[in-house]
Amino acid sequence: QAIPLVRRYPALASIPRVPLGEYPTPVEPVRVPGLGGPLWIKRDDLASTALGGNKVRALEFLLAGVQPGDVLLTGGGEGSTHVLATAVLASRLGARVHPVRWRHEMHAVSEDVARRSVRECAVVETSGTPLGGIGRTAWRRLTLRARWIPFGGTSARGILGHVNAALELADQVEAGELPIPTRVVVPLGTGGTAAGLALGFAAAGLRTEVVGARVVPRIATGRARVLLRARATARWVHRTTGVALPRVNASAVHVVHDAYAGAYGRVSPLASEAAEVMERASGMRLDATYSAKAFAVALRIARAPDGVTLF
Question: Interior CA angle at 282 toward 280 and 284, to 5°?
Fold first, then answer.
């Protein structure tokens, strides 16, 4: 069965994709006392039995065409879920991943991610600083015969996975599975998820705002960068397939900066409290680097009677 992206734009079937997840992922309400408006979750943690999460959607496009024995180069923080997801899913295709990582503040979940990455990857290089890691990654791109998988899976090709997620959500709204979200709250790192959702909502004709809870330094991301990525993806799609996607308006994206705790991977008291709320409400466990910080923002917004919030 064709994915929502291809059903809406059949010409995009020409862009290679390898199915790695089970879709559509379910949507469900979260019952939390004291909320002023409805709060929903889209369960992308259930996207794959191998390893769930939003990275699966981008990697379906980024790993297309990978053959057994291929070497893939990528990079990220020591506790990067992107590095782990790339390694786990690439191994299902018979490929090996060579990541360059850099050190940052850690907590129990990120330490577990780091250990799993070492087990899953062919070779792991770790730098003491982000700049050192980015520099070493650039050097490896020149010297290592490997296929490059961009940081966070964020490129025009990878962002298509999140455009499809927005169209999938639009289908679920049309089917009556949930009300139209006033806003969707996501962690904001490299910005691919937010950019793809904004572009997908524009394509679906939904006026749903994308709220990014920034979890990386301000210099690394912001609303302007998300909009640039969304518009660059639309241009790439047009060049590649001739399909014209709508322009994403600046008002479609909002970035919350106070979710960041002062360092990538640093535990935030508000995020820890939000994680406890989620575990009591649904049994789900959130990680302190990304999802707990975004859920803290979603809770704060949902306490006001101002439409439907989707996390």
Answer: 95
